[in-house]
Amino acid sequence: MSKTALVLGATGLVGKTLVEQLCRDHRYRTVTCLLRKPLTNDFFQQSSAKVQPIVIDFEKLQDYQGYFGCDHIFVCLGTTIKKAGNKSAFRKVDFEYVHIAAQLARAQRALSFVWISSVGANAKSTNFYLRVKGELENAILGTSGLNNAAAVRPSLLLGEREEMRPAEKLASILSPFLSPLLLGSLRKYKPVDAVEVAAQMIRLQVF
Predict the structure, then answer these.
(1) Sheet holding 3-8: strands in order across?
(2) N or C terminus: fewer CB in 10 A for the chain?
(3) Which residue spans within the chain are E strands per DSSP?
(4) pTM score, whole prediction
(5) Contact between residue 55 and residue 39 where contact means Cβ atoms under 8 Å apart
(6) Which fold has domain 3-158+192-203?
(7) 185, 119 Cβ separation under 8 angstroms
(8) Which of these, 60, 70, 65, 92, lies nearest to 147 by C-alpha position?
């Protein structure tokens, strides 16, 4: 039986390629995308009648609970402190929105919930970014009644961004030289292509 998917963060590096992969996946009949603003008609390379874009106010995410009745929930939301403006605004996007999405997925009894965390996520980290990611993992994985919750923990992401971040640009340049040196326990720190992260998110879903 075909499944329905809901994607939050569909315009980001991973989210965009994820939607395109879902459109090509015969196991999905619809892909609903909750967005901040309308998309251009050619935004996705893989245009498909499967995609259902819905513009919402993320400040009132609870008001859109009905959309979380999809089978599989994918959350690719994320920002940086620089782009958000301050730590509080960063936490709102990277913790609060994702946590609320998990609660809505539980309320609507979604079959599974997968979101993007980060390698090194740790609620006790002295690094603010990694601490928030770790706190979110603890909060979601500790949510009773949430079906099949799983986090992907990529290192630096590789791929074509509209707005390339300095660390990612450097990683894309150095990756061919450094990746072969990251072996054993260090493998998790290899820069990873957004295409692979998206594919992993789909593999983690329950069919």
Answers:
(1) 51-55, 28-35, 3-8, 72-75, 112-116, 149-152
(2) N
(3) 3-8, 28-35, 51-55, 72-75, 112-116, 149-152, 157-158, 192-193
(4) 0.86
(5) no
(6) Rossmann fold (3.40.50)
(7) no
(8) 70
114 φ/ψ angles, rounded to the nearest 5 degrees? -125, 135
One-letter amino acid identity for 129?
Y
The residue with tokens 């603890």 is 138
**Can you tell me the distance from the alpha carbon of 14 to that of 114, in angstroms, rounded to the nearest whole number?**
13
d(CA 197, CA 204): 11
Mean of pLDDT over the chain: 88
Rounded CA gap, 185 and 187, in Å?
6
Are 174 and 80 in contact by the 8 Å Cβ rule? The answer is no
Domain ranges of the chain: 3-158+192-203
Distance CA 2, CA 23 (A): 12
3-class DSSP string for 139-158: HHHCCCCCCCEEEECCCCEE
Q: Read off the pLDDT of residues 109-135 as tens digits, 9 standing for 90 and up.
A: 999 999 999 999 999 999 999 999 999
Helical (H) or strand (E) element with 176: helix 166-178
Q: How many residues does the chain have?
A: 207
HSE-up of 48 (CA within 13 Å, CB side)? Answer: 19
Distances, alpha carbon 72 to alpha carbons 59, 68, 149, 160, 192, in Å:
22, 9, 10, 26, 23
